[in-house]
Specification:
With 205 residues, the protein is mainly α. The protein has helices at residues 2-27, 30-50, 52-55, 64-67, 84-93, 109-125, 150-154, 168-181, 196-199. It is built from nine helices and no strands. Helix 2 (30-50) packs across helix 6 and helix 5 packs across helix 6 (109-125). The longest helix has 26 residues, at 2-27. Residues 6-11, 16-20 and 199-205 have low confidence and may be disordered.
Length: 205
């Protein structure tokens, strides 16, 4: 009963927050809405540059760095109890005993608030996937040339799938993923436990 009550309280709190935001938007002027949208996108740009490496492009902490950190970076898509105040505090001051360091010397107060608001809105409340990171603006021109590796990045094909079961194109995509993508991405999906780079060592063609 206690666990059920706790879950119900969290659900009610999230529902109340979403309802408040809906009413808040309805009462906002067009200028205020444009300002909020601009602030949100500014927070996205900072997140995509500063935070994705540990917390992931979509806030779910599915990154190679996360596999090497204890405790793991926070998965924002499951952080229903995360408040704006706690997010701002963590970004500004860091979290003792974790890999989360203070960004006080890197970001100003306004940018810290923008990132916190972005995380709460985009990941905690909406559970939305972040916009495509690999764009020319982010230093990734012609990212389509890595298309053969996409099935391994998305988890459509397990990284430790038997090489003999893969087609010629899939084997080429696997090599491309291991050589180019895995340094930032996690394994996507693996069948066996272990570090993503370890399970592939014996299966390299």
């Amino acid at each position: 009963m206690t666990a059920w009550r706790g879950a119900a309280l969290v659900f009610c709190a999230v529902a109340a927050l979403l309802a408040w935001r809906i009413v808040d938007r309805a009462n906002a002027s067009p200028g205020e809405l444009r300002a909020k949208a601009a602030s949100h996108e500014a927070g996205r740009k900072i997140y995509n540059f500063r935070c994705y490496y540990c917390h992931g492009y979509s806030g779910d902490a599915r990154t190679l760095a996360a596999t090497m950190l204890r405790p793991k970076p926070l998965d924002f898509t499951r952080a229903r109890r995360l408040t704006r105040e706690h997010a701002i505090e963590a970004i500004r001051d860091g979290r003792r005993g974790t890999a989360m360091q203070s960004f006080r010397s890197v970001l100003g107060d306004r940018d810290i608030e923008r990132v916190a608001n972005f995380v709460l809105t985009e990941f905690v409340e909406r559970g939305a996937p972040n916009t495509r990171y690999h764009t020319p603006e982010n230093g990734w021109p012609g990212h389509e040339r890595y298309a053969a590796a996409y099935p391994f990045a998305t988890g459509e094909i397990a990284l430790d799938a038997p090489v003999g079961d893969l087609t010629t194109a899939e084997r080429a995509g696997r090599r491309l993923y291991l050589d180019t993508c895995i340094s930032c991405h996690d394994a996507g999906r693996i069948r066996r436990r272990g570090a993503p780079w370890a399970v592939s060592a014996s299966g390299r063609e």
